[in-house]
Amino acid sequence: DIQMTQSPSTLSASVGDRVTITCRASQSISSWLAWYQQKPGKAPKPLIYKASNLESGVPSRFSGSGSGTEFSLTISSLQPDDFATYYCQHYNSNFGGGTKVEIK
Amino acid sequence: EVQLVESGGGLVQPGGSLRLSCAASGFSFSRYWMSWVRQAPGKGPEWVANIKEDGSQNNYVDSVKGRFTISRDNAKNSLFLQMNSLRAEDTAVYYCAREEVWGQGTLVSVFS
């Protein structure tokens, strides 16, 4: 099984900050990675598909990069609506443990 | 538009069984690996099982091996999850997924 490791598990930041979340695969997964945002009481919402492609309707301040075993999700200027938990997932397989982005 | 619609969830006692179904539309179902994902209350999402395009290969998370069976009917654009010997810890919303696209989910509650 390919394991997905996300870091950090919690991130404290302020509105306007640039934040980066990292996801590492235990072996190469090419670009078969998605990023999700989840808010309390809601289902996860896909943000990024195939590592670096922005889902329709997702603000351009979100971006994804990486391939192989190292991936990152970057929010260029954190907005109040972005405080949430973020997950990476190897397609049709394991999720990372999640990163909670909270207000500093 | 890709659509995935789950059904079959409900309340069941420990040791019981349920069969989840997923009706797929808007894409060439037989060309994609498909999977089931679940999310228990207050927990992160968890991948449960996946199945190859032609149904010839499948994989499961360790906690459901020997109890759950994933299958598909490409002629009917349908995905299934047979869940046997259900436990309280299987309580979750179950989602049918094609890569990053998920259905709306169906709730499975296992209680005594």
Question: Short description, anyone?
Answer:
The complex is a heterodimer of chains A (104) and B (112). With 104 residues, chain A is an all-beta fold.
Structure, described:
The complex is a heterodimer of chains A (104) and B (112). Chain A has 104 residues and is mainly beta. Chain A contains no helices and 10 strands. Chain A has strands at 4-7, 10-13, 19-25, 33-38, 45-49, 53-54, 62-67, 70-75, 85-90, 99-103. In chain A, the strands form 2 sheets. Chain A has a 6-stranded mixed beta sheet with strand order 2-10-9-4-5-6, with no helix packed on it. Chain A has a 4-stranded antiparallel beta sheet with strand order 1-3-8-7, with no helix packed on it. Chain A is globular. In chain B, a hairpin with a 4-residue loop joins strand 7 and strand 8. Chain B has strands spanning 3-7, 10-12, 18-25, 34-39, 45-51, 58-60, 68-73, 78-83, 92-98, 101-102, 106-110. Chain B starts with a strand and ends with a strand. In chain B, strands 2, 4, 5, 6, 9, 10 and 11 form a 7-stranded mixed beta sheet that branches. Chain B is globular, with a radius of gyration of 13 Å. Chain B is 0% helix and 52% strand. Chain B is mainly β. The mean pLDDT of chain B is 97. Chain B contains no helices and 11 strands. Chains A and B meet through strand 4 and strand 9 of A and strand 4, strand 5, strand 9 and strand 10 of B.
